Amino acid sequence: MEEGYLIIETHAEHPRLVRVRKAETPPAEPVTGDRGDPRVRYVARFGDLSAAQMQTHTRLRHCLVDVETGLYRCDPAAAVAAAQSLELRHR
Question: What pTM value is reported for the model?
Fold first, then answer.
């Protein structure tokens, strides 16, 4: 099992899209998106990061745009709700 962070972010250049990605460490600082950078919407630490990413993908699969980059066409609140509702231990 791989521990790490599941991150959901948006970007001003890609309206109506969210990106779901995983990382070993949390974002270094909150990103506001003021300079066109990605805006972090959700961060949670999971004990089984691969399972968290896979289950989030399963819940959002009907919104999938690009599996390689983790892009989904959905509301950020829906993506956060999908990740937060996982029955995996996270904080």
Answer: 0.85
